[in-house]
Amino acid sequence: MSKSIVVAMTGASGAIYGVRLLEVLVAAGYNVHLTISPSAQLVLEHELEIKVDLDDFQVSQLLLGDAAGTSDSKLSMLRQAAGISTSDSNVLSFDVGSPGMIEYHHHEDYMAPIASGSHQTAGMVVCPCSGGTLAGIVNSLSGNLVLRAAQVHLKERRPLVVVPRETPLSTLQLECMRKASEVGICVLPASPGFYHGVTTIQDLVDFVVGRILDQLKIEHGLVRRWGS
Ligand SMILES: Cc1cc2nc3c(=O)[nH]c(=O)nc-3n(C[C@H](O)[C@H](O)[C@H](O)COP(=O)(O)O)c2cc1C
Prior knowledge:
Elements: E1 4-9, H1 15-27, E2 31-36, H2 38-48, H3 59-62, H4 74-82, E3 102-104, E4 123-129, H5 131-138, H6 145-155, E5 160-164, H7 171-182, E6 186-187, H8 201-215
C-alpha cells in the first residue's frame, strides 16, 4: 500500500482533530499531502490561535512542539491541559522507523499531484469537513483542490473519509451524508465516545482520530479498545 495520504482541512469546527491527525500520520511514517481551505485557515486561528499563511505555508506553522508558537499560545495551553505532547510515545502501537513528512498544496493548485488519479495514495481524509465541502463532494464539484482530490479518490475507488462537525443537522445535510455513504465515502462524524475512560480532551480528540486511522487500516495505540 502507498504510504502517501491526502489530508484536507476545511472550515468546520474541530481544527484540533486535523492537527492531531497530521501528527499521528507523520509519526506513523506517512507522507501527507495537505491542503487547507481559506475557511479552515480562519478556524485554525479562531480555535487554536494558529496562523497559517496559505500562500507561504510552513509545516512549522501547524505542527506542534517544535512549532506553533510559544508555550503560552492557546493551543499550547489546550495541549497542556489535555496532556498532549508531540513526542507522545503512546501514539503508535508499533515501531515505524523514520517519520513521514508533510507536502503542502495550495487549495487552488490543480497542478498538485493529488489532483490526478495517476498519483497513488492510500486514501484521503477531509478533517474537519464542513457542510459546504461535503455538499460539494457529493455533487461531484471540483472548484478547489479539496473537492478535486476527493473526486479523484472516488473515481479511483480509493478510501475517502469525511469528518463532519455540525449539530443539529438539516434534512439536506443528512441527505448529503446519505448520498456520501451510498457512494462509498466513510462518513465519520466528529462525535467522540465517552466510554473508554475519558479524563482529558486528548482522550476525546484521540478517539475520533483513532477511528479515522481504523478506517485507513493504520495501526495505532491512541485509544484503549473495547474489550481489551
Ligand atoms: C469559526 C468558524 C466555525 C465554523 N464551524 C463550522 C462547523 O462546525 N461546521 C460547518 O459545516 N461549517 C462551519 N463553519 C462555516 C464554514 O467554514 C463555511 O460554510 C465555509 O464556507 C466552508 O468552506 P470550506 O468547506 O471551503 O472550508 C464555521 C466557520 C467559522 C468561521
